[in-house]
Recover the amino acids of this structure.
């Protein structure tokens, strides 16, 4: 090829220009740089063609689907696709956090503790919205939390009912992600940023839920019911898994705090149970409550039955004595049911219902660290140990029993022998 021919070929080369990432579909089809004018770019206007922008249209369709999927009253909302969930979750975080999120790198979110600095972990856990949250939502979407969702039986119910409810209720979404982070930490104990992120979401949830707790509108009863369940789980899980425990960490105080939170919200929900029963969650919540109804509790079969009742009879005044006797019967009946069945639904119901069923007078004795109440609490630790699928309790039964043993001292040691035999049994 001659020099002249070579120059002619070079002269026919297409002139380069910077790409237009947000250009219209017409200019992309024509391989023409779009000036991105709205509503019609210059090229489409000159050629009298319709001008369409793909990104804007897709976002519009996502927002429309999210709005249509929001729950209305007690009826079941429509199902959401994963892209709906991602779009709505982003909107919720933007509206519920005052600060602006900075990007979280994969390195900061996924680096094992052995290679991560404390500063990078703190940074990963303190962002209002970050890549780590996508992992937490993915864990939810893949069914990782079905064992703590009493009204969700399968992934179909998760998508069509619960997820739209959580996306429409920011405090419930934050609490859901807190539990998801703790669930992942239970599986991957080296990732401290998961516990820190759970703490962030828990604080956001507690801040956002305040208006609904102060005065509960009927339509908020259902999300508050789920929030109460999740808050109790996350409070116990934080006590069980938190790697930042200080020397003054008190498992008894942490556990009783979780009890108070759950009892307080459930008490305010009492007037709305008739409404809750009419929602999509009503039948399955009723099914959860009825777990183990075919079994007969036998509290007298627990070796400590007689001695615990004798201790309870010595409590004064009479209303606290009655509350202690009831707590003994509730605790030992629950233990006898767990000895008859390893059903996970039954274990979950007994573990979460125990603090609600025990009377307020008994909880006041716990707050005062009265010996009889602490011995009954030690039996609750045995209940947690015997339960099936209670991942959120982690090492809490052992820590709780150790703390009770320390507080009571040698004088009361013999009354802890049976719960110790259960909690310290590695086969449990």
């Amino acid at each position: 090829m001659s020099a002249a021919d070579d120059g002619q070929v070079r002269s026919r080369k297409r002139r380069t220009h910077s790409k237009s990432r947000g250009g219209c579909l017409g200019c992309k089809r024509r391989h023409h740089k779009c000036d991105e004018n709205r509503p019609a770019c210059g090229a489409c206007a000159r050629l009298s063609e319709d001008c369409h922008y793909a990104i804007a249209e897709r976002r519009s369709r996502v927002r429309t689907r999210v709005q249509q999927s929001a729950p209305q009253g007690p009826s079941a909302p429509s199902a959401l696709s994963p892209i709906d969930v991602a779009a709505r979750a982003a909107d919720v975080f933007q509206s519920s956090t005052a600060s602006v999120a900075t990007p979280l790198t994969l390195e900061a979110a996924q680096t094992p503790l052995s290679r991560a600095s404390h500063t990078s972990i703190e940074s990963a856990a303190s962002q209002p919205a970050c890549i780590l949250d996508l992992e937490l939502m993915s864990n939810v979407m893949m069914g990782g939390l079905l064992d703590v969702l009493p009204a969700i039986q399968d992934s179909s119910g998760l998508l069509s009912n619960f997820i739209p409810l959580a996306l429409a209720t920011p405090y419930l979404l934050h609490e859901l992600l807190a539990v998801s982070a703790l669930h992942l930490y239970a599986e991957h104990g080296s990732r401290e940023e998961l516990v820190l992120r759970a703490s962030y979401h828990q604080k956001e949830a507690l801040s956002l839920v305040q208006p609904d707790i102060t005065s509960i509108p009927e339509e908020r009863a259902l999300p508050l019911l789920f929030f109460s369940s999740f808050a109790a789980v996350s409070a116990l899980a934080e006590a069980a898994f938190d790697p930042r425990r200080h020397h003054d960490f008190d498992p008894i105080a942490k556990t009783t705090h979780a009890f108070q939170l759950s009892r307080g919200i459930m008490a305010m929900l009492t007037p709305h149970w008739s409404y809750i029963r009419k929602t999509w969650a009503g039948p399955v919540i009723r099914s959860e409550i009825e777990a183990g109804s075919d079994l007969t509790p036998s509290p007298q079969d627990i070796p400590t039955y007689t001695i615990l009742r004798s201790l309870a009879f010595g409590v004064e005044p009479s209303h606290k004595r009655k509350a202690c006797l009831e707590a003994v019967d509730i605790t030992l009946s629950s233990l006898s049911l767990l000895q008859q069945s390893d059903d996970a639904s039954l274990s979950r119901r007994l573990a979460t219902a125990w603090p609600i069923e025990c009377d307020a007078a008994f909880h006041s004795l716990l707050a005062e660290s009265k010996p009889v109440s602490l011995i009954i609490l030690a039996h609750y630790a045995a209940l947690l140990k015997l339960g099936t699928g209670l991942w959120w309790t982690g090492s809490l039964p052992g820590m709780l029993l150790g703390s009770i043993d320390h507080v009571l001292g040698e004088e009361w040691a013999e009354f802890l022998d049976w719960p110790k035999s259960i909690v310290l049994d590695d086969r449990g």
Residues 8-17, 55-118 have pLDDT under 50 and may be disordered. The CA atoms of residues 161 and 250 lie 38 Å apart. The first helix runs from residue 3 to 11.
